[in-house]
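subagent[fold] <- orchestrator: predict structure for attached chain, return tokens only, no commentary.
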Amino acid sequence: MFDTSDDVGARLSAVDYLAGSATATTVFLAGRLGKPLLIEGPAGVGKTGLAQAVAAATGAELIRLQCYEGLDESRALYEWNYATQLLRIQAGQDADWQHTRADIFTPEFLLERPLLAAIRREGPTVLLIDEVDKADLEFEALLLEVLSDFQITVPELGTVRARHRPFVVLTSNAARELSEALKRRCLYLHMDYPTPERERDIVLTHVPALGEQLAGKLTEVAAALRNLELTKAPSIAETIDWARSLLALGIDDLNDPALEATLGVVLKHPGDHERALAALELRGR
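subagent[fold] -> orchestrator:
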């Protein structure tokens, strides 16, 4: 899917995702080796965006599985469409049970969920398993067959194997330690917040009208805010929203009044707001 790591960087840049050398190299290796890519790091550093960018850069369809506590097989793999099965049974009341049973457990009545959809898809596919650390350990065990052999077993139908391996990206905010079994099946990439200079380049990619000087000051403030003990640090996406907000307001200088008026774009907790005002010495001005 990519020829070299430089090819990864260039093609991701073409879809407005600026990847560092470590990111580009790991994405290249994941594609070349056919291994799932596990990305860990704080929320808002571009983990999900990387999967979306890979899909856009390669013309693949993105299939996303959002993980949460209690996620189970029926939501991740497949489930049977019981309502239509019941209708079929009622329509064929005169048929014997063996015939009816063979009729209702067929692909026609199978509701595929993201993992099965990714395995069965014929075309290029990026499978995003987002925030896998929010799912239970039992769900990790469920993933092992998929990530090892790219196959899913449906007892009534047999084993479904992928004709074309999807490019798999798992993201984790490191809310809990993932199992070693899961990590062994993946290449690993740790992502952190970018330097102010790199974030300035990212902001200018998405909001070029902001100007280099204002973008530089904006990303320096964002970096300073992330050094505070906040409940939620500003994400890269929120920094971009901040840049767009400054443009919408016609602000061309991030002075103290402009800062105080627009902090709500990136800080969403009252305590964080108070800490930022104190740290930036804005209160009372």
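orchestrator: received. Logging for downstream: The longest helix spans residues 212-226. The mean pLDDT is 93.
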